[in-house]
Amino acid sequence: MNGPAHLLVVEDEKNVGETLAERLQAAGYRVTLVATAARARQAWRTAAPQLALLDVGLPDGNGFDLAAELRAAVPQTAVVFLTAHGNPEERVRGLELGADDYLTKPFHFRELLLRIQNCLKRAQDLAEVPQEMRGVARIGRARVDFERFSAEVDGVSHALTHKECAVLRLLASRAGKAVSRDEILDKAWSADEFPTSRTVDNFIVRLRKLVEPDADEARVIRSIRGVGYLLTEVTHE
């Protein structure tokens, strides 16, 4: 990564946003601060950020919807949700949207810095995978572009999150061999996100909708009872 990482901070509380931006700049990051979803859209069109800190509650929308738009427009951007609510359902929703992390206010700034560093490192690790895992692969009925974080199915392009790409990359790199849920969690999630084996299962359900020719029968991503999952069909282009 050349130069300081560019962070997009979307926070509608003026004092909170300004203080956060100042401290992140002091920590060495380049920061764009906006207070609305509309301004956020303009910001990422102008210069795609490496990471976005999204407040869940915004005056003209919510961070979840904004994250979905951001993922479609700039899929390589890491996403961290900031929220004043510790609602477990909101946390699950954020992680299922592919958030790289989720932090409840008030939080310690040093903890936020560590989480940002971890997210940026994971994104960098994804960019440094072997060449055959960085291009395009045919997985089942989907044509997966790992660099663009997208999957094309029947002529329709679908945005993939960092974690979805990470899971597919891992399974594709071990095609024909079972990969345990624990290994998938270790490669795609950090421990402080409190993921579980059920988290992996939920991601596999979504990925199967893209790659399986028959939605009622999992042949491309097979379940290996008591272990994890096995990818049967991958061709690198």
Walk me through what this model shows.
The chain folds into two domains: 122 residues, Response regulator (Rossmann fold); 106 residues, Orthogonal Bundle (Arc Repressor Mutant, subunit A), CATH 1.10.10.10. It has 237 residues and is of the alpha/beta class. The strands form four sheets. Strands 2-1-3-6-7 form a five-stranded parallel β-sheet, sandwiched between helices. The chain contains eight helices and 15 strands. The mean pLDDT is 84.
Helices and strands in order, then pairings?
Layout: E1 6-10, H1 14-26, E2 30-34, H2 37-46, E3 51-55, E4 57-58, E5 61-62, H3 63-73, E6 78-83, H4 88-96, E7 101-104, H5 109-127, E8 136-139, E9 142-145, E10 150-153, E11 156-159, H6 162-173, E12 178-180, H7 181-188, H8 197-211, E13 221-224, E14 228-231, E15 234-236
Parallel strand pairs: 1-2, 1-3, 3-6, 6-7
Antiparallel strand pairs: 4-5, 8-9, 8-15, 9-10, 10-11, 12-14, 13-14
Short overview:
By secondary structure, the chain is an alpha/beta fold. It is 41% helix and 25% strand.
Helix content: 40-55%
Considering the protein shown, what is the CATH homologous superfamily of the largest domain?
Response regulator
- Which strand order spans the largest sheet, edge to edge or round the barrel? 2-1-3-6-7
Number of strands: 15
What fraction of residues sit in β-strands? 15-25%
Termini distance? 27 Å
Count of domain modules = 2
Name the CATH architecture of the largest domain: 3-Layer(aba) Sandwich
- CATH fold-level assignment of the largest domain: Rossmann fold
Oligomer: single chain
